Amino acid sequence: MRSPQAGFVARCLTVAAAALTLAACASHPPAPPAAASADYNYKIGPGDQLNIVVWRNPELSMAVPVRPDGKITAPLIEDLPAIGKDSTSLARDIEKELAKFIRDPVVTVIVTGFVGPYSEQIRVIGAAAKPQILAYRQNMTLLDVMIAVGGITDFADGNAATILRTAEANALYQVRLKDLVKRGDVSANVDMKPGDVLIIPQSWF
Question: How many domains does the chain have?
Fold first, then answer.
């Protein structure tokens, strides 16, 4: 059976593929310059690296990865779900598990390697120099994404690029990548949102 995460990714890529096909011949509203949420909290995802610190119990403190199924395993803890939680919530869950074995455990969880949940990752497809998936960061902008993927190719129709915003029922917004990357027009820079898919079509000419 296909996992919910795989289903989410498949739906995003299906919609993105359709948008990529129509990008050159459709007109979309420009992306709003400001989109970041001030109350955003990072959510743990598969592949993240966690440093678990148990106060006064160094034998229980260790670094662990979040498995592909979204769970972690640590001393005295087996198959504890971590995906979608912030570090504080996960620390409280670990304390509940450890309280079965030690008195009044105090736990701190520090995320040291960031991947993020599938639903919040930024996906860049089409005519980018290095199409890839990026972990969303608070106040992440389109320029940050362009730096991470190495810009656009010589064959990209940068000013026909679009953002598929999954957080807004797959709304499509036009962005001016050519103006931003090639001409240094900072007015073309916009905020990204968790789950955005940046679609960069090739030029027809």
Answer: 2
The boundaries of the domain holding residue 144 are: 4-40+118-200
Of the residues 113, 141, 167, the one at which a domain ends: 113
CA distance linking residue 35 with residue 78, whole number of Å = 39
- Centroid of chain to Cα 190: 16
Torsion sign over Cα 114, 118, 122, 123: positive
The reply to whether 151 falls in a domain is yes
- CA distance readout (Å), 84 to 9, 116, 145, 192, 203: 16, 8, 23, 19, 38
Q: What is the pTM of this model?
A: 0.83
Alpha helices in the chain (DSSP H): 4-22, 87-98, 142-149, 177
pLDDT digits (tens, 9 = 90+) for 9-53: 556 555 555 555 554 456 899 999 999 888 899 999 999 999 999
Task: Classify 168 as helix, strand or coil.
Answer: helix
DSSP category for residue 141: B
